[in-house]
Design goal:
single chain; globular; 9 helices; mainly alpha; 2 strands
Length: 291
């Protein structure tokens, strides 16, 4: 799927290491969020760090295991990069000025450019992808449900602020990240999947991975509240668990039923190069004809 696997995997490893360092510190010493994060939001920061530790470890593994033709590994890695982009985008945009802020910025930047590089180096021809109709429609329907819910919800919350000019102190980053990045991604990839387009079939499960990690982080944030002297809220816990479960089921279903066909190896197409790549074309040109 990705034609320059080595540089992509390098960025995954760097993002994973940086996230692991920052998130492990936050889990070990959650007091670093005092005075920079509202007290009632510290359990959420703690749970986000727990998920970021898991995402960092996952990216480190995938940077080693996701070889050229292991498409599912690459898809999951892109989903975890998306999670780190969102999670550390919150810290960066919300001005979480503790001793780790520069690392937060580094994770945010590396994850963004890792996603951009993946888009730039995605092979336009291989692997071919197919998905049976039922899981394809289920995956696309679950994805398009997100912008249908969150666009009206977030815009409805923004309109009173726009009328009064009030500037809220926290969580405004969610409006920016959701409305400008995540919801458009769900909308575009769900429509491509509905149309059985190869890009949608390959990339939509990455958004399911992102959605699961984000929603499960919110659920864990409710469960760890007693550690910080607060009571969990069922009204917040149950929707987060339901959405994370939905994303998990859709992601597993999509990846399990996804069928990809790697390029065929031939005399002019070495195992290390994709048939559509410049390297493969050059080697084909220089391969003498058989006698």
């Amino acid at each position: 799927m990705l034609t320059h696997a080595r540089i992509n995997r390098l960025l995954w490893a760097v993002a994973g290491l940086l996230a692991l360092a920052a998130a492990s510190t936050g889990v070990w010493r959650p007091e670093i969020y005092e005075h920079v994060v509202a007290r009632d939001l510290i359990p959420g920061a703690f749970s986000q760090d727990l998920l970021s530790v898991a995402a960092g470890l996952g990216l480190l593994y995938l940077s080693y295991a996701a070889t050229l033709y292991r498409t599912r590994h690459q898809i999951v890695a892109l989903g975890l990069l998306g999670y780190l982009f969102y999670a550390y985008g919150i810290y960066v945009i919300e001005r979480t000025y503790n001793g780790l802020y520069l690392i937060y910025m580094a994770v945010f930047a590396v994850s963004f450019w890792g996603i951009a590089l993946a888009g730039a180096t995605m092979d336009r021809n291989s692997p071919s992808a197919s998905l049976p109709t039922a899981p394809r429609l289920a995956s696309a329907s679950g994805a398009i449900l997100q912008p249908l819910i969150f666009y009206p919800l977030w815009i409805g919350m923004l309109l009173p602020l726009m009328r009064t000019g009030e500037q809220i102190d926290s969580l405004y980053s969610v409006f920016i990240l959701d409305l400008c990045f995540i919801m458009p991604g769900f909308l575009v990839l769900s429509l491509l999947t509905y149309r059985n387009h190869r890009a949608g079939l390959l990339l939509l499960p990455a958004l399911h991975v992102l959605g699961f990690t984000l929603m499960f982080s919110l659920a864990v944030g409710e469960l760890v509240k007693p550690l910080f002297g607060a009571a969990p809220s069922l009204a917040a816990l149950l929707p987060a668990l339901a959405l994370s479960g939905l994303f998990l089921v859709l992601g597993i279903l999509h990846l399990a039923r996804l069928r990809t066909t790697p390029p065929q190896e031939g005399p002019g197409v070495p195992r290390s190069a994709n048939p559509g790549s410049a390297q493969a074309r050059r080697q084909t040109m220089h391969t003498p004809p058989s006698q």
